[in-house]
Structure formats: C-alpha cells, structure tokens
Amino acid sequence: MAFWDTSALVKLYVRERDSDYFRELMRASADTAVISQLSVAEMHRALWAKEVARAIPEHRAGTTYQRFRSNLERANFEVVPFGPDVEREFDRIIRICHRAKAVVAIHTFDCLLLASALVARTPELISTDSRMRNAASVLGLAVLPE
Question: Taking the domain 2-144, which CATH number applies?
Fold first, then answer.
C-alpha cells in the first residue's frame, strides 16, 4: 500500500514524459493507492494549472478532473479523511523535520499529505516532489521512484 502525492497522481491522468512509469507502477500494485482528502482539491488545482500553462489542451482540466472523480467513486483510491489524527501527525512531523540534522523545510500542504500517509500507515510514498521525498525519508518512508 503506497501513498500517492499529487505530483505523481497527476501523471496518471495527464501525459508527461514519465507517465508510463507511474501508470505501470499503479497497474503492478495489488493494493489500492492511498491519497488524502486534501489531494482531491489539489488534483483539481493541478489540472487547471496544467491547462493554463497549455500543458494540456483547452477544456481538458474539467473533463480530466471528472474522470479522476469517477475513479474515486469507484473506490480506485483509499481516501484518508482530514481530521484530528492528521492534525496531530502534522504537529509531530513539523518537529521531526525541523529538528533533523539536515533541516527539511517542508511546506504546510506537503506536511499535511505526509501526515495523511502516516495516519494510513503506508510504508511508501510515491512522489516526484523533492521536499516531500526528503521529508518522507526522514520519517522512515520508502520513496518511489528510487
């Protein structure tokens, strides 16, 4: 069971140079991918950012987001709800990252996603975001891609 950061999740829906790798990673897994409830909103924002940047065709953000939502409704993802347990884990992660030998300057949103991953007890993080990857390593999560 792996937690999918939005940086990797979007590659399942938008064609990027490394999308095939992430699609195969998803296909090869026998477990349901785990995401945060917050990832749903971030996915919507990321798709619109791609459309504005012309990385995807005009009018594609909305239809791609609907496809993602359909996958959510079919339970293709396990969604970790945002709640007090995630907030407590967030507080713990901030302390760990800022007290690490090499301080990890993690962003608030990234820390909330990592807190969701730890609440779900996922052993792996799938992400292309360097700060998320660094923080995940400090927290003892395996990070993919290697």
Answer: 3.40.50.1010
